[in-house]
TrEMBL record:
ATP binds at G95, D96, P97, G98, I99, G100, K101, S102. SMART domains: AAA. This is DNA repair protein RadA. Belongs to the RecA family. RadA subfamily. Plays a role in repairing double-strand DNA breaks, probably involving stabilizing or processing branched DNA or blocked replication forks. Residues 66-216 form the RecA family profile domain. It comes from the Bacteria. Keywords: ATP-binding, DNA damage, DNA repair, DNA-binding, Hydrolase, Metal-binding, Nucleotide-binding, Stress response, Zinc, Zinc-finger. Residues 352-474 are annotated as: Lon-protease-like. GO terms for biological process: recombinational repair. GO terms for molecular function: ATP binding; ATP-dependent DNA damage sensor activity; damaged DNA binding; hydrolase activity; zinc ion binding. It holds the Pfam family ChlI.
Length: 474
């Protein structure tokens, strides 16, 4: 057997380089090239692939029953997964350290075990005593959940092969697993790829659902090779700020459900508690008589969510104004500032701009443009927006306000929370069916961003201060 030779692999993307370099040519990351021992190929594989058998092709047309699901009885988690766990599926959960990944999965596994299913929790980062202490704090000590602390994949695979009737296996985390057939250290690209492939093979062959915890890099992406996200059936990111009690579980990939679906949790001394109505929670501390605030009617997956957009402008002491953004895209803010100054006549280039999405939620959809523009115009003119109005719509470079999807769902959520007005894109007469506006909600169609700025700047300050706010601020 030939001796293994060294190769250089990027820990960010998994690309192989012939020699060490400071920068990966494939993904552009710096200081991610590490040396690993290359695996020697067996003789037949090196010479070619022979001896295969013919595969059968079937027509595309046909009927397939939806996959069976095992719900956790945690509504927010089941929503993100598309209704519950699918047998033999693999879910990857990532998030910042200390955000609550282990807590959520321990609660979910204990809830599943309490319902009569066989659930296994394997920790590579904590001892059994540490997991028991956390379960005791969460009130889960009596749950019939099987625990183990192990990092050797060979031992874990042998144990899982011997188990019968297992519904769920939790691995916390994949970066701590190691395979003794490889010479590289745990957490390297080769180890993560090999360990994940073996665990996925076990899940598919034995029929149990596998949930794997993944570490994240300082940029927020899951550490290890990118191929890890392609191997699994669902990728969930656990988001949130340390200073906020809210945690957002977001699906960015799901082969058995909708992507971009979110679940909202609140961190308490008893663990993570699901939030059934996140819109009311995000608007609970809102004050409608403050300039620089606007309510955005957004949609995350299939769920409409109302959040407050806050903007603050202050004179810039230097020659380079600062742009600070929390919860939104900084490049899109720069574009919107240019549109407001060029198309609507707002002088914003000489001021420091601070933008915040209240509650710790991160907004990615372009429909938030109109709400951000309203908050910026309110902060620039010193006139509060209408406290009973929500905003949504995409803003183009020429200042036009473009249509967005699921407008009726946004309006229904606004009406449910007591809002009486909505600023939305103008709907062309040739669009087809008229927009269904809930009773008691007045729809104001905005065609250009200059119309929005003119309305905010022309409102009487006294009337704005006396306007009644939504239920969330009472």
């Amino acid at each position: 057997m030939p001796r293994p030779t060294s190769r250089y692999v990027c820990s960010a993307c998994g690309a192989v380089a012939p020699k060490w370099a400071g920068r990966c040519e494939a993904c552009g990351a710096w200081n991610t090239i590490v040396e690993e021992a290359a695996e020697a190929l067996p003789g037949p594989a090196a010479r070619g692939i022979t001896g295969g058998r013919k595969i059968a092709f079937v027509p595309l047309a046909g009927e397939s029953a939806p996959p069976p699901r095992t719900p956790f009885d945690i509504a927010e988690l089941d929503r993100v997964l598309g209704g519950g766990l699918v047998p033999a599926s693999v879910v990857l959960v990532g998030g910042d350290p200390g955000i609550g990944k282990s807590t959520l999965l321990l609660q979910a596994a204990a809830r599943l075990a309490a319902g009569g299913a066989r659930a296994l929790y394997i920790s590579g980062e904590e001892s059994v005593e540490q997991v028991r202490l956390r379960a005791s704090r969460l009130g889960l000590a009596a749950a019939p959940l099987a625990l183990a602390a192990a990092t050797s994949l060979r031992d874990i695979a042998a144990s899982l092969e011997a188990e019968r009737g297992v519904a769920l296996v939790v691995i916390d985390s994949i970066q701590t697993m190691w395979l003794d057939a490889l010479e590289s250290a745990p957490g390297t690209v080769a180890q993560v790829r090999a360990c994940a492939a073996e665990l996925i093979r076990l899940a598919k062959s034995r029929g149990f659902a596998l949930v794997v915890v993944g570490h994240v890099t300082k940029e927020g992406a899951i550490a290890g090779p990118r191929v890890l996200e392609h191997m699994v059936d669902a990728v969930l990111y656990f988001e949130g700020e340390r200073g906020h009690a809210f945690r957002i579980l977001r699906a960015v990939k799901n082969r058995f459900g909708a992507t971009d679906e979110i679940g909202v949790f609140e961190m308490t001394d008893r663990g993570l508690v699901e939030v059934a109505n996140p819109s009311a929670l995000f608007l609970a501390e809102r004050r409608g008589n403050v300039a620089g605030s606007a309510v955005f009617a957004g949609v995350e997956g299939t769920r409409p969510v109302l959040v407050e957009v806050q903007a603050l402008l202050s004179p810039s002491p230097g020659g380079s104004p600062r742009r600070a953004v929390v919860g939104w895209d900084q490049g899109r803010l720069a574009m919107l500032l240019a549109v407001l100054e060029t198309r609507a006549g707002l002088a914003l280039s000489g001021a420091d701009v601070y933008l915040n999405i209240a509650g710790g939620l991160r907004i990615t959809e372009p429909a938030a443009d109109l709400a951000v523009a309203a908050a910026l115009a309110s902060a620039a003119t010193g006139r509060p927006t209408d406290a009973s109005m929500v905003f949504f719509g995409e803003v183009g470079l020429s200042g036009e306000v473009r249509l967005v999807s699921q407008a009726e769902a946004r309006l229904k959520e606004a009406a449910k929370l007591g809002f009486t007005a909505a600023a939305l894109p103008r709907r062309p007469s040739a669009k087809g069916r008229a927009l269904a506006v809930p009773q008691g909600l007045a729809a104001w169609e905005v065609g250009h961003v200059s119309d929005l700025v003119a309305r905010i700047a022309g409102r009487a300050a006294g009337r704005a201060r006396g306007a009644a706010g939504p239920r969330g601020e009472r």
